[in-house]
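Reopening this one. Same input as before:
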Amino acid sequence: MKILVVGGAGYIGSHMVKHLLAVGNEVTTLDNLSKGYRDAVTGGTFVEGDLADLEQLEQLFASNAFDAVMHFASFIEVAESMQEPDKYYRNNVSNTQNLLAAMIAHDVSYFIFSSTAAIFGEPLHTPIAEDHPRQPINPYGRSKLMVEQMLEDFDKAYGLKSVALRYFNAAGADIDGELGERHVPESHLIPLILQAASGRLETIALFGNDYDTPDGTCVRDYIHVQDLCDAHLLALEYLQKGSESDQFNLGNGQGFSVQQVIDCARKVTGREISTRVEARRQGDPAILVADSNKAQAILKWKPKLSSLEQIIETAWNWEQSFFLQ
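Same output, byte for byte:
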């Protein structure tokens, strides 16, 4: 297929581009490089551009007969979204609307959307299945939910078929060591822990150690980035078969506490990792774990790199090869 990957120079998008190329697809990456890196795009055609540029979007779609679009170009920082909601609604909602309008104008039928568990807000129960109430508590989560709602309307009105994949905690790195996670600033737990292991960071903050969990620290569901890529490809195949638009939660279905992740990282790296306890962060639930049974039943998806050790090992290999060379 001929696939447009928007945000394909970022963390998950770059892994997706490599995955799509490996199975024989023709890939074009569109990225403004505000968060991504040109050297992370390992092949295909690269176009530097922005979804806010309507003229460029028109030219891109007019000159390419895309079969499908995968969208990874959202801003993702919860705290930043609280401080700069306008930035999040412009990029995550308005720019996505520009993209969908271009697809409709040029008869591109399939859309795979990178959504998030943040659309659920404070969990009423865990594990979280797709029918859990959607009550996001920050602009980031609300912006993603708005797009999901937009997709439902665009399907009814224009016949645009889509799958929204709701990630829990994406983690890990390319098993070949070619790609990995490099956000600036970094806010994700595993790369921060590994920065402490490598000496790039002095200590790791534990935001609360008095939660109602076995060791007092928050429990989260980590999913390897390559398992996410597998899910995207299966979602596209699902739509190609004539299936209806849908949404799927993606996680391992098992939770690991912050302390467990730190202990595992100490084991994998053989390094001491210094920690300090700080106050709880507002809006941090004690436990967030996905129920991915629907994706496993319908998409026939099953995580292959599901152990915490595997996830941390690939991320540690990337930390050493890229940052410590």
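So the earlier flakiness isn't reproducible anymore. For the record, The longest helix spans residues 85-105.
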